[in-house]
Design brief:
Radius of gyration of chain B: 22 Å
Shape of chain A: globular
Number of domains of chain B: 2
Largest interface: A-B, 37 and 32 residues
Helix content of chain A: 25-40%
Distance between the termini of chain A: 20 Å
Helix content of chain B: 25-40%
CATH topology of chain A: TIM Barrel
Number of helices of chain B: 7
CATH class of the largest domain in chain B: Alpha Beta
CATH superfamily of the largest domain in chain B: Response regulator
Order of helices and strands of chain B: EHEHHEHEHEEEHEEH
CATH class of chain A: Alpha Beta
Strand content of chain B: 15-25%
Structural class of chain B: alpha/beta
Number of strands of chain A: 8
Order of helices and strands of chain A: HEHEHEHEHEHEHEHHHEH
Strand content of chain A: 5-15%
Oligomer: heterodimer
Distance between the termini of chain B: 27 Å
Radius of gyration of chain A: 19 Å
Strand order of the largest sheet of chain A: 1-2-3-4-5-6-7-8
Shape of chain B: elongated
CATH architecture of chain A: Alpha-Beta Barrel
CATH topology of the largest domain in chain B: Rossmann fold
Number of domains of chain A: 1
């Protein structure tokens, strides 16, 4: 892993620290204060902040503009980019737009299908897939060229990430797919929310056996559960999510008013268990519309204060 | 084959409102096989149209005919001597047939009676499913004979995405995950090493994205 971008996240990982990232969803309007306020809540407890790209296919303030707001406020954004809505011209153009503000992290995703969102009538672009978007950013950065072959003046200097879901089906393809992302040039991975820790560790073990752990930084994705209802919803309704029965039972086993507290506690316990697992280089805390809980989780897990970089 | 389904009766009746004598024209190819616009469907729609117009107090003459192939100028030529007696042609062929009529008979209105759907195959009696997107650069040899362009909801080349659950696509339990099917078939074939091949960004010029397409066979051109 010999990348060397100005990314603060990369520097943190290279220095051997457990990295902490989190994410904020932009508002459904043009009030930038909302995204800045969310980021302010967590900025001292994380190394970088993902900005989601029209998550669940619901139209929102764009990820790029939101990242720019954060960057101008002195924070470290991770530009999420899905391949659902833009062709390769638009994506390369947005990558340059981000680079022009020295946004140094990108997360390459395919994105939820548009049928989940508010514009299910819309077209489904996927000119590239997430794997090919990884290749594209690496090509632009490392070769200094557009996909079309022309030179880029001042190429983007980005630390390139992607998602991995160890829990989607078929399971046996999950490590081979990670291997493909590594072959495509991914440098860090943020995983899907982990509730089934045993299965996550099994996946990591298989990735280790294939020699992948030396080639990519893996940040374990964690989401605090707010309630038993949320646990059940994620278990039954969210595609590709694995919430074991014992997780649902544990949160359902405490009185309603204590469930949020229990959810945070469970999240902290997950960090503590995974912190020393080989191949886990940090955590991506996805507190969905619950950003104010991120500091408590990071502190509770012993990941605060965040290390200072030179 | 090309699949189609008949348009809703209300839409059809509205589209023929201005006419009092029409030629209802079927096709003996794909739309016959998928029971959308063959001889039988022409007869059914013909009867429904006559009745529908009678009920409105505006009777309409409906002549029925089914051509061997509506997308072929040779068969469309058959209409040349009789077509002038109609106010419009109501075609039950796919969009290719409708346009062949429109091109050959520039002054004759042509109304589509079916919605052309996709290139597909029959899964079971009465069920057709999309199989080919006509992208112009076939990858089926690498994907176990299952097309990621036509059958993955995100047409991704290096799937499956994170939404694949128990063999189904994230969009619906009624849709199979194409990449689950591809993986299963590659296993069956002993070709899982093909999965590790990173598929590069596709050149979509051979698909519709390169503009309307034509095939010119110099060896066959007259």
């Amino acid at each position: 892993m010999s990348v060397n971008t100005p990314s603060k996240l990369e520097k943190m990982l290279k220095a051997g620290h457990q990295a902490v990232t989190s994410e904020c969803g932009p508002p459904r309007g043009s009030a930038a204060e909302e995204i800045k306020e969310k980021a302010e809540l967590i900025k001292d407890h994380v190394d970088a902040i993902n900005i989601t790209d029209n998550q669940t296919s619901v139209t929102r303030l764009c990820s790029l503009a939101s990242c720019i707001h954060l960057k101008l406020a002195g924070l470290e954004p991770i530009l999420q980019m899905v391949t659902r809505d833009r062709n390769r011209i638009a994506m390369q153009s947005d990558i340059l737009g981000a680079a022009s503000f020295d946004i140094n992290n990108i997360l390459c995703l395919s994105g939820d299908h548009q049928s989940f969102g508010d514009c299910s009538e819309g077209q489904n672009v996927h000119d590239l897939d997430s794997m090919q978007l990884i290749q594209t950013v690496r090509h632009m950065r490392d070769e200094g060229k557009f996909l079309g072959g022309d030179d880029i003046k001042r190429p983007p200097d980005m630390f390139v990430g992607a998602a991995a879901n160890p829990f989607a089906d078929p399971y046996e393809i999950r490590v081979p797919r990670l291997a493909k992302k590594v072959a495509a040039g991914v440098e860090f991975i943020q995983t899907q929310c982990i509730f089934n820790l045993d299965k996550f560790e099994q996946w990591l073990g298989e990735a280790r056996d294939r020699g992948l752990l030396e080639q990519v930084y893996i940040l374990a994705g964690l989401t605090p559960l707010k309630s038993a209802g949320m646990a059940k919803y994620m278990k039954n309704r969210v595609p590709g999510m694995d919430v074991p029965d014992e997780v649902v039972e544990r949160i359902a086993g405490v009185p309603k008013e204590k469930q949020a507290e229990e959810g945070v506690k469970m999240c902290i316990e997950s960090v503590q268990r995974l912190k020393d697992v080989e191949g886990v280089h940090g955590f991506h805390v996805m507190a969905i519309e619950w950003e104010e809980k991120v500091p408590e989780i990071v502190e509770g897990a012993g990941l605060y204060p965040r290390p200072k970089l030179d | 084959m090309i699949t189609a389904t008949r348009k809703p009766m209300e839409e059809i009746l509205k589209s023929v409102e201005p006419f009092s004598k029409i030629l209802l024209l079927g096709c003996n190819e794909c739309v016959t096989v998928c029971h959308a616009g063959g001889r039988k469907e022409v007869a059914l729609l013909g009867a429904a149209l006559r009745l529908g117009r009678l009920q409105k107090g505006l009777p309409m003459e409906v002549e029925e005919l089914t051509l061997e192939r509506q997308c072929d100028p040779e068969y469309v030529e058959e209409l040349s001597r009789t077509i002038d007696q109609y106010d419009a042609v109501c075609s039950m062929a796919c969009g290719c047939g409708v346009q062949t009529i429109a091109e050959r008979y520039p002054s004759m209105p042509v109304m589509p009676m079916v919605n052309t759907a996709f290139m597909g195959a029959s899964e079971s009696h009465g069920v057709w499913a999309e199989r080919c997107a006509g992208c112009g650069d076939c990858v089926l040899g690498y994907t176990g004979g299952i097309c990621p362009v036509a059958r993955c909801s995100k047409r991704i080349f290096n799937g499956p995405c994170g939404g694949s659950t128990k063999g189904k696509c994230e969009i619906s339990n009624d849709v199979d995950c194409a990449w689950q099917l591809i993986w299963d078939r590659l296993k069956e074939l002993g070709q899982t090493e093909l999965y590790s091949k990173l598929m590069e960004p596709k050149d979509w010029r051979t698909a519709r994205d390169g503009g309307p397409r034509r095939i010119v066979r110099e060896d066959m051109a007259l």
